[in-house]
Write a structure and sequence with these properties.
105 residues, alpha+beta, 4 helices
Length: 105
């Protein structure tokens, strides 16, 4: 399952890299994938777990201490990158923040 989730994330590498994606780790019993991010909205861990009964994914945002910050349930595979992007990186003034970060006028 971890490899499958990675293959989904690889379809939009520029978006995934914008999160500061690193340290991908398969979850026990191959139930999903965990990775660290350094986004505008969330810094810490993202756990993507496969819900076999629903054939959907659940996403947990966790702090560096593994405390669960929020949970997003019932995500379809083709929405996975977009949902994570909105939870981790996208803000209402995203373009302005990127320009400020890179000191672009």
């Amino acid at each position: 399952m971890a490899d499958y989730i990675l293959s989904i994330l690889r379809t939009q590498l520029m978006v995934v890299f914008s999160w500061g994606f690193h340290r991908p780790t398969a979850l026990p019993d191959d139930k999903g994938l965990a990775f660290m991010v350094n986004g505008f909205k969330h810094r810490g861990w993202v756990f993507v777990k496969y819900n076999e009964g629903k054939d959907l994914f659940d996403i947990e945002l966790r702090g560096n201490d593994m405390t669960i910050i929020s949970v997003i349930e019932d995500v379809y595979f083709d929405q996975l990158v977009n949902v994570i992007d909105h939870a981790v990186e996208r803000t209402s003034d995203y373009v302005k923040q990127v320009k400020k970060l890179y000191n672009i006028q």
